[in-house]
């Protein structure tokens, strides 16, 4: 089953919210998971002109295109000039909790995903099966399910 994605533009055109239903992919998964990520322009000046969304290899990618501003005027009574300008606010480049190099977002401690509304908020799940084996689900966004290896050493994956 594929994930169902619904993306809605806010009434003020400042951002989008998504509803993502990720179905159980394996019979031992505890439940489906539902996410509700929200992203928008935080500068207060820009609005969303258009957006695209894509789900691939377990990753939801949203691309928001901001409205362009046209700057113009007269230069010393001469010819008019006009220039297309896109906001360069730092709020557009690294919104809170999205910088992959932020030390507080990396390391050995896994934190719950705050966008999960239903299902496990963690990036992993494990349970002992009736036959004594161990089932482990590990979210690895962007890693195709047919081209990776996993190893266990000293009880750690």
UniProtKB/TrEMBL annotation:
Top-level lineage group: Eukaryota
Matches recorded under InterPro entries: HSP14.7/HSP23.5/HSP23.6-like (IPR044656)
Name the record gives this protein: SHSP domain-containing protein
Organism: Brassica oleracea var. oleracea
Species classification: Eukaryota, Viridiplantae, Streptophyta, Embryophyta, Tracheophyta
């Amino acid at each position: 089953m594929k994930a169902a994605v619904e993306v809605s533009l806010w009434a003020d055109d400042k951002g989008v919210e998504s509803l993502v239903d990720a179905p159980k992919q394996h019979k031992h998964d505890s439940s489906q998971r539902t996410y509700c990520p929200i992203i928008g322009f935080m500068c207060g000046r820009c609005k969303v002109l258009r957006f695209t969304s894509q789900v691939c290899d377990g990753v939801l990618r949203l691309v928001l295109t901001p409205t362009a501003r046209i700057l113009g005027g007269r230069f010393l009574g001469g010819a008019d000039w006009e220039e297309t300008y896109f906001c360069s606010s730092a709020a557009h480049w690294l919104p809170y909790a999205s910088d992959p190099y932020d030390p507080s977002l990396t390391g050995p401690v896994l934190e719950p995903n705050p966008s999960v509304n239903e299902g496990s908020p963690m990036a992993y799940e494990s349970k002992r099966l009736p036959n004594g084996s161990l089932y482990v689900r590990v979210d690895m966004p962007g890693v195709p399910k047919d081209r990776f290896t996993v190893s266990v050493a000293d009880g750690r994956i």
